Amino acid sequence: MSDKKRSKTYGTNIDFNAFNLRPAASYLDDIKKLKDELTVTLTGFGSTVKPEEPKAPKTTRPDKPGVEPIDLEPLQSSMDEAKRAADDLLKEMERKGAALSPEAPKTEAEKSPEKPDLEQLLRELDSLVGLEDIKKNVRSLINLAKVRKLREEHDLPTPAMSLHLVFMGNPGTGKTTVARLIARLYYAIGVLSKGQLIEVDRSGLVAGFVGQTAIKTDEAVKKAIGGVLFIDEAYSLAANTGENDFGREAIETILKGMEDNRKDLVVIVAGYEELMERFISSNPGLASRFNRYFVFDDYDGGELYRIFVSMCEENRYRLTVEAQEYAKKLFSDLYEHRGPNFGNARDVRNIFENVIGIHADRVASDPDIDERDLTVVFREDIQKASEM
Q1: Which positions ≥6 away from 176 have C-beta within 8 Å?
Q2: H or E stretch including 91?
C-alpha cells in the first residue's frame, strides 16, 4: 500500500488522513520555510539595519497629488513581530517536540500496531465452544490466503480469490467472535494492514434523507479499510421497505468501496440462512463478490452448558455438584424445546446474568460473608434464574 493510502495515527490518536492533514513534521518544515521567507522579505525592507542608524525616510508618492505618503514603519514592525513569533515557535517545538522531526523515533501512537501471533490466534479459534466445521473452514481459508500472499511475494501467478464472506446462522452462534478473529488472522499473515473489525447493521449505514446514505455508508467503509467491515442482519439492506428505502444505495456504496479497496478491505455479511441467500441473490454485484459461505449451527445442550461454565469460570464463580447437574438439564431442555426466537449463547448470557443477580440477593444480607459465599453458586440460584 502506498504512503498516501496508509492511514497513520499521531499524537492523541488523531487520524490525519481522515482530516486531510499531514504529519506534524511537515508542518515544522513549513514553519522553517516561513521563517526563511520572512528573513528575506524583512531584509528587503531594511529590518536588518542596526537600531542606532537613522531610520529610512517615509516613502512618498509625489506623482500622485492628494495621495498620503506611505508609512512602511507599521508594516515593518508587524513583520518583525511575525519573524520573532516564528523564531519562538520554532525553538519551542524543537525543545518540547523532538518527535516532530522526521528522523526522531516514533511515538507509541505513531507506530503500527504490533502484529498478533498467528499460532496464538489459531489457539483462540480452537478454544471456542463447538463450531467444529467453522474452525476447519477458517483454518483452510487462512492457509489459502497465506500461500496466496507468499506467491505474490515470489512473483508467482495468483488466481483471483475473494476473501469476503457470508456468515449464515441464528443469533448468538458466534458469528461476531469469529469475524473478529478472522480480521486479526488476516492481519497476522499480511493480507490486511490493520486487522480491526468495524461492526454495523442497517441503522449504521442507511440514513433517512436522499443523498445521506451514501455518505454514511462511505464513512463506515473508510473506518474499516485495513480491516473487516462486519454487517450484521445484512439482508435488511435489500428489504425494500418503502418508497424512501435507501438500503440498495447502501449496497451499491459498499460494492464500490470493496472494489476501490479490494487489496485492503474485507467485508463479512451475516444473518439468518434463508434471508442471507435471498440477499446475496438480490444483486449481481453481491453474488460475484461473495462466494464463501460459513454456516453457524445452533449450539446443542452440551455446548450451551460449556458456554455457561466458561462464563462462570471467567468471573470466578463455582458451581456445586447439584448446580452442575441442574444446569446440564436446563440447557439440554432449552435446546430440545428451542423456538424461532432461540438465542443460543445470548440466552446463556441472560441466564448467567440472572444467576449472579440471584446470588447477590442471597449473600448481600449475610453479615459474615466470606470468599466462598462470594463465589459459590447453588442449584437454587440457577433454578430461580431460569424462571425469570
Answers
A1: 197, 199, 230, 232, 270
A2: helix 73-96
C-beta atoms surrounding 233 within 10 Å: 19
| 87: in domain | yes
DSSP annotation string for 242-286: STT--HHHHHHHHHHHHHHTTTS-EEEEEE-HHHHHHHHHT-HHH
Q: In angstroms, what CA-CA distances link 124 with 118, 119, 129? A: 10, 9, 10
Is the full-model pTM beyond 0.70?
Answer: no
Residue 140 CA neighbour count, 13 Å, CB half: 8
Q: What pLDDT digit, counting tens, does each position of 10-22 carry?
A: 344 444 454 445 5
Q: How far apart are CA 113 and CA 90, in angstroms?
A: 31
State yes or no: pLDDT of 196 exceeds 70: yes
**Number of CB atoms found within 10 A of residue 168's CB:** 22
C-alpha cell at 354: 440472572
List, for residues 40-54, the tens digit of each pLDDT value.
Answer: 555 555 544 444 555
Domain shared by 122 and 232, yes or no: yes
State whether 290 and 225 are in the same domain: yes
DSSP code of residue 342:
-
The whole-number pLDDT of residue 369 equals 87
Asked whether 311 and 348 are in contact (CB, 8 A), the reply is yes
Scanning 175-226, the segments in alpha helix (DSSP H) are 175-188, 212-224
Please check whether residues 192 and 330 belong to one and the same domain: no
**pLDDT top residue among 321 and 33:** 321
Contacts of 355 (CB under 8 A, 6+ apart): 317, 377, 381, 382, 385
Q: How many whole angstroms separate alpha carbon 144 and alpha carbon 150?
A: 10
- In the three-class reduction of DSSP (H, G, I as helix; E, B as strand; rest coil), residue 326 is classed as helix
Looking at the fold, whether 169 and 255 belong to one and the same domain comes out as: yes
**Are the C-beta atoms of residues 269 and 279 closer than 8 Å to each other?**
yes
Contact 265, 221 (CB under 8 A): yes
Q: Do 275 and 312 belong to one domain?
A: no
